[in-house]
Amino acid sequence: MKRIYLIIFIAVLSLTSCNKWLDIQPELEIRKNAIFENEQGFKDVLIGSYIRMATPSLYGLNTTMVLPELISQHWTPVTGTISAYLSSFDYTQTTSKNLFEAVWLQYYQTILNINSILEDIDSKKDMFANGNYEVIKGEALGLRAFLHLEVLRFWGSVPGNIVLANKAIPYVKTVTKDPNKLIANSYQEVLDNILADLNQAEELLSADPILTYSNAVLNSPSTLAGIDKTKPYPADEYHFFRQVRFNYYAVKATKARYYLWRGDNVQALENALAVINAKNSDGTAKFTLGSETAANNGQLTFPTEHIFAVSNTLSTQTLTSVFFNNNTAYTQTATYLNTAFESTLHTSDIRYRSNRLWELRVIPLAGNFNFFKKYNDTDSKTAVKDIPLIRLAEMYFIATECGSELLFRDYRIARVLDPSIDGTLTSATAIKERLEKEYRKEFYGEGQMFFFYKRHNYNKFTWPVAKVVTESAYKLPIPESQSMFE
Cβ distance 250 to 146 under 8 Å? Predict the structure, then answer.
């Protein structure tokens, strides 16, 4: 059995829009009843939402490897390009504006697709089998909350300066092509809606297959023929591959992010620990920190850590020109990287040693380039398919920041970091300074550094070079085409 990604579905829900506004295609309105005439239609629409999320417009490139990474100074800027504009926080250039608009629209178009499921699923509950009503509705609600939180983290104010009564972003719960209905909600309304959707998703996903089966089983449906049929196993093919679905633990991890963003460390810690301490029926850990074996095999996104990922079947086509053997690739100076990864101190770091994460190559007539290898499948030009959106390492960082400093030692051991940093987390300042370094190392190319900086409202970057940062750099401008936003 293969992962089911119904590419034909793209013909129904277009991945691009010729309209500046949120767009529900007329043919979809006509065919909506037909699409949702059976359970498979709901599955198809939800899978279509995951497909959209995996495209270059969102997590396949823009919102993981480009937009937040450029603002965080992770790539060497090239004069006259978007890399130079975003690295200098110049959001007025046309190319910058176009990127913001593309990302904004893709987020909300994905949310509209999800809303189409939620508008119809309750009235057709009786057509579902194998617990799929709860699974599909739970995923849809969780995804809607997750995506709105992402939009808020990009376009909202620095968390510490939020005025709850002020306008934030639209929290969209309906299917509409009317631009007049894209109206901003207050921060309070957005935050309340995110939490309400996450709470309902958690309740619905209380019987998520990921709670019953290990990820090893769920990621290997081809082994079913060899499984003892007297023992339980997933009854529906949709129940497999839960790490690339918005599963129960993705809800808990998103709650950890949400509460940390709000400054509620108690709740953030509780939810992070729920993921860290999750166990299979045999007592083994549900998710495990990446190991030397994984790094040695070129699995630098550490698949055993994936709490939620998107599967990008076009990743090689998309990322070859971005990272592989190309003198226009995103890169960074080796000297700066040695500083970032503390290479003289942490000589055995499983990510950085042996040219695992970066490789210096000579491009004829162009010069030396430091190629980023996180998304390589070993040393080939084939890109990894699963792009992580939430990883276990982040839960360890959240727990560390929220008072469980001892957990940081488990993370340090897994990455084979020098023991000299043991016992150094003796104050909130020391913890923040250490986590700044670790977010950069751990999530290079994944986009999480930007949110760490924004959450703490850094007014100065010290790496790769000193740079003053104003609060406006952290709040992306609302696209001009959304003129009726206010």
Answer: yes
- Cα of first residue to Cα of last residue in the chain, in angstroms, is 49
Place of tokens 């104003």: 470
In a domain, 430, yes or no: yes
Query: Is residue 369 a part of any domain in this protein?
Result: no
Q: Tell me how many domains the chain contains.
A: 1
Enumerate the H helices of 205-300 as residue ranges: 209-212, 215-218, 248-262, 265-276, 292-296
CATH classification of the domain holding 241: 1.25.40.390
* Tokens, residue 479: 């696209």
pLDDT tens-digit series, residues 164-203: 999 999 999 988 766 556 789 999 999 999 999 999 999 9
Q: Which residues contact 363 (CB under 8 A, 6 or more apart)?
A: 325, 326, 327, 369
Would you say how long the chain is, in residues? 486
Which residue in 344, 251, 358, 348 sits closest to 300, CA to CA? Answer: 358
Q: Give the type of residue at 472.
A: S
6-43, pLDDT tens digit by residue? 333 333 344 344 333 344 444 445 466 788 999 999 99
How far is Cα 376 from Cα 351, in angstroms, rounded to an integer? 13
